[in-house]
Amino acid sequence: MARPKIALIGAGQIGGTLAHLAAIKELGDVVMFDIAEGTPQGKALDIAESGPSEGFDGVFKGTNDYADIAGADVCIVTAGVPRKPGMSRDDLLGINLKVMKSVGEGIAAHAPNAFVICITNPLDAMVWALQQFSGLPAEKVVGMAGVLDSARFRHFLSVEFGVSMRDVTAFVLGGHGDTMVPLARYSTVAGIPLPDLVEMGWTTQEKLDAIIQRTRDGGAEIVGLLKTGSAFYAPATSAIEMAEAYLKDQKRLLPCAAFVKGAFGLDGMYVGVPTIIGAGGIEKVVDIKLNKEEQAMFDKSVDAVKGLVEACKGIDPTLA
Ligand code: A3D
Q1: What is the complex's ipTM, to 2 decimals?
Q2: Which member of 49, 72, 168, 273 lies 3.0 to 4.6 Å from 154 by CB, making a disulfide possible if both were Cys?
Q3: Which of 20, 110, 155, 176 is catalytic?
């Protein structure tokens, strides 16, 4: 069977890392598209040249022509600008919305059957706009945020408890911003929920609250350290996890920014929820029960996302 084709739209920090990971995991042939001339070509060639030592096969191509993404099975979108210290993700809205328009049109014209994973910020509004601009079915257009936010939560928890990251599961829902909702009740160490671990004396409520806040601020913490851009290793790994779930029909249950209609009482919007990803794309939105406090946090996050979507409509009237 022919290797799957993975198109990376944006060949910057995350795009380059995505290509390297896809190569090492032998997920398929990779086409890197960017408006910057030379960058995708140089990165693709550099990665191809790591093949003999690493021991992978595949075709790696850099391009400035959308025609080269033709027939892609997966498109991962990082095109746009990242934030700098002092900026919020929402400050990127105007500039990245224009980028989503050209990317959406490029994907619609050349790779209309792809599973599309958006990473560009502000995430929930950009994935919505990308779906609108591309016209692809909503179950084939999804945003990466929950996997990353949950991975950050899992990392901090594993350090706090001194246990393997593999044994820590965590759930972060809602919009990918300051209002995101890390759910302690649905996060566990090998099945033991976090509130039980507090009762067992493994940690204190205060420490847990501090970890939850650090998770919410996880992106800003890295931006503050790097000073010239935002996180790229963990975001790329998270998106590759989602791409692999689709390509291998793994039926993974992952928190993603998906189009939600009906579940969680929502009437049609993109926001972070638990989903099942398989060969059909987003095959299911898993409608979990939230208690009063969790629901209030989720509602606040939903309102923040709705505000960003309205701002997009204000900028581009074709997005009605
Ligand atoms: P960066 O290294 O600047 O790469 C972005 C690339 O996009 C550059 O190579 C640009 O040349 C290219 N580009 C700009 N405009 C276009 C266009 N119209 N068409 C094609 N390519 C274009 O940024 P990055 O890779 O660090 O981050 C990319 C995006 O991901 C930013 O918007 C970040 O804010 C976002 N991001 C999201 C998360 C989430 O968890 C959702 C995490 C980290 C970063």
Answers
A1: 0.99
A2: 168
A3: 176
